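User: I'll paste a sequence; please echo it back and then give the predicted structure.

Assistant: Echoing your sequence first, then the prediction.
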Amino acid sequence: MPSDGTTTAGPSLRERRRGAAVEEIMAASERHLDAHGPAGLSLRAVARSLGMTVQALYHYFPRREDLITALITKAYGDLADAVEAAAQAPPDDPAVPGLVAAAEGFRRWAVTHPERFQLIYGTPLRDYAAPPEGETTRSVRRMSATFRRELLGAYTLAQLAACESPELSPGFRTHLEALPPDGLGTLPAPAAALFLSAWGHMYGLVALEVFGHTAFVGEHQAELFRVAMLNLVADTTRRMPAG
């Protein structure tokens, strides 16, 4: 309670009811997404499962794009939470680097929620574009910050600037240096390029598994992923000059 004796009003009854309705719609939409995939997302089917009309659903999400944006934002947020939790959890093996733990958190979420992974990393939905610099972008940057900390956080700016890297073109270097500060803009260009390469390596292996292209590895897919991530960390370490 504030010191002047006044109280801060909480959400009104109407706002609480609206919030509860939005949560119910989101939960139903996620169930529908898990059952039918991103391409099969239907507002009419979601509304029907809740016993409401599409017109009533539009009261909370005026456009299909608004519901998709909310689902993508939540998926990114859940994934970012899973990555951070994995990075902060006591490791099963103290020798496993934090980046490997975070990457394994990313993989576990993806293989547990393949349809939601496809929503955010699969084929773009027709006639949908995420709002530029909106909630989805902020969620991605939050997850990126965890990976950046675990992979490159132990190195100084001087080391990052001097890391071993193929020569970057002037245009690419300028582009990397102009990235937002809450993205990769705080990294020297060679380190930013190295980070993006590492991200592509990690994401690509997870996507191959989610889409069934590494099924031939059988029950050893988790081990394959750990080996690949350990190699990635070793390669990054090798490219950094001594502190």
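The first helix runs from residue 13 to 36. The two ends are 50 Å apart (CA to CA).
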